[in-house]
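User: Predict the structure for this protein chain, please.
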Amino acid sequence: MKSASAVATFVILTVLSACVGDREPESPPNVLILFTDDQRHNTIAALGNQEIRTPNMDRLASMGTAFTRAFVMGGHHGAICAPSRAMLLTGRRLFDLHETGDIIPDRHTMMPNVFADAGYATFATGKWHNNRSAFVRAFREGGNVFFGGMHQLRVGGHEAPWLYHFDPEGHYPDSTKWQGDKFSSELYADAAIAFLDRQRDSDRPFFAYVAFTSPHDPRTPPSPYREWYSADSISLPPNYLPDHPFDNGELHVRDEGLLPHPRTEQAVLEELAAYYGMISEVDAQIGRILDALEINGQLESTIIVFAGDNGLAVGSHGLLGKQNLYEHSVRVPLILAGPDIPRGETRDALTYLFDIFPTVAELAGAPAPATVQGQSLLPVIRDANSPARELAYFAYRDLQRAVRTEDDWKLIRYNVTEEQRTQLFNLGEDPNETRDLADEPAFSDRREQLEALLLAASASYHDPLDLSAHPGAESTYLSRMAFRVGR
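Assistant: Here is the predicted structure, written as structure tokens:
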């Protein structure tokens, strides 16, 4: 009897052969995932931010296709990075993960598992903020591994992070931790480059997962990046506020305590300057990895995915963190580059992080497992006019829910201490969400429409929070729209 690995390898090679017709089967492409931490969508120079320096993210944008409306679905708790990683790696939606937003190792097939079974060398470095048993099951190689959410200043911060060497047996007791003597991003890039160098003469394709901890706080960019930005060289966010205008349920979470209240313009600008410095720092390390791919002759045969795990407020709407459903916190950068991906193009399809798994699998000729719930982006990559989602749904704890339509309308519902509040935004005219239209009579029909879509999406995405008791729209509109939300 053939092993599962042998069968999976045969299936992939058969699919690849069919894709090329009578030609000789092509070698399976390599896969490289570059994942940053707390990087919001509008922090790449090539995609419109002229105040930040990101030459290597710009390079990726020129090499591939950028998705300008990509999102994390939300989270069950303040650490959004945990479910965002789980969604990326499993292709599962938020409410179909563990109740904490984690990976269920014995039920959820992960992306590296599919490629390992197909004969790929699988590798990981950097942040793993999910259960360790899933990590052990996912990768065959690794280096400079960080189990945790952030590099605490009190124990070394980014400058001296506590890491693990990869253990093929999967044993990671605290006694084996060691403290690095370089900035975290550099250590992760070092491990990735060493792996790429080892693969240079290998006849096996590779799957590499590089999860940076930057630009997550503590925001302590090293030289020269910290000198690149100052409070007087960048602009205040257009949706800056000294404080959030009402209680959203998370005004006292850890992230919101990083600056005093009210937020002053000077404090926000200084925080934003440090944030930009961290992004430029991780950009430089991404450049080192891209250079290694090119030197090793691996660049043209590698599918590269660059993404952020979630956004961040950094002064927008009087907030600092990601524990909210505004665009700055749920929207993320996403660029795909590699064989058969258009160069220097953008797509505005509504996209989730859990769409990456089926997309990469299809690009590599690998069938996605039945547990994957995301949608392959390959049709949209090939044709910008291909049908895509008509709406996106977001959730944060039991406090906040939101729906965003393809035509750029957005409704956010808050339920804090039994008090409900609604916001309505026309993102086409107000992309920074500064004018709440929810209580304006001229937009009452639009509000009703979005409330119906919110209820329909809640059911479609298996949200356990019962929104049906909340004030909503007519049931006839709800029933008419319900079938459309799963697209």
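Confidence is low (pLDDT under 50) at residues 1-25, 471-487.
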